[in-house]
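Hello everyone,

My group is preparing for a crystallization screen and wants a predicted model to guide construct design. The compound we'll soak is 2-acetamido-2-deoxy-beta-D-glucopyranose. Before spending weeks at the bench, it would help to have a computed complex in hand. I've included the protein sequence and the ligand's SMILES below. Output in structure-token form would be ideal because that's what our pipeline reads.
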Amino acid sequence: MAPSLWILSLVVLFMVTGTESAAPRRPVDVPFGRNYAPTWAFDHIKYFNGGSEIQLHLDKYTGTGFQSKGSYLFGHFSMQIKLVPGDSAGTVTAFYLSSQNAEHDEIDFEFLGNRTGQPYILQTNIYTGGKGDREQRIYLWFDPTKGFHSYSVLWNLYQIVFFVDDIPIRIFKNCKDMGVRFPFNQPMKIYSSLWNADDWATRGGLEKTDWSKAPFVASYKSFHIDGCEASVQARLCATQGKRWWDQREFQDLDAYQYRRLQWVRQKYTIYNYCSDRARYPTMSPECRRDRDI
Ligand SMILES: *[C@@H]1O[C@H](CO)[C@@H](O)[C@H](O)[C@H]1NC(C)=O
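Reply:
Good plan to model first. Here are the tokens for the complex, ready for your pipeline.
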């Protein structure tokens, strides 16, 4: 073998083995079809740039959605979304992870549309073992319809973190020691959808969808998935503890991230189930830990 070829194959070998242990903390942007497939109303999804960007269309007949081909136990998942611009009142765009069984686990981002010029609400929720009722609502610090922003979830055995443009907006720590179930053994798929929810979404259902403005269009790109792929039935991840998101630096937020989280909470929170005494006279145990942040 010529020396240059030999060096080349060494480099290639290094790159191949290198991807196993390297830390791909930066999202890798891949086309839609690599990780995802449409779920329903296939004709309401439009593709651009060879499938690296897509649009979901909602009209009075139907919304649409897509889901990951694989199921995952832990990992880092993100996509960039440009929400329905203009009059989006009554519409909801969602990005969530969910397991597919009766006592299911779920990690939700839901974007509640609004009348032109009025702010979207980002609602997040977490279900563990079929129990939800953990809504938090915030306004965003930018107009999410003007450009693409990244929305991501980091999920490991220690915490679930919701990020908006890499700023943590919510953390759900593993409070198993307090008797709170934490998602750890039910693989989840990643989903996104756009649909009409004008019975509750905007100002509690007062603002209805204006169908004369249809179609409502949400745009997506950068379909990053870096998770431990598992069959739907699997209860374990084969590489548990060995991937970058399991490592110490991802087991908790750092001081800078906690400051950012505080900033979001103090300036942008509209609603937090942890402080809703009317609805939940006894505070959920995980809220006690949350309060210390
Ligand atoms: C819509 O705008 C109204 C008025 O500014 C605001 O009260 C509400 O929180 C906004 N968002 C939603 C989804 O209702």
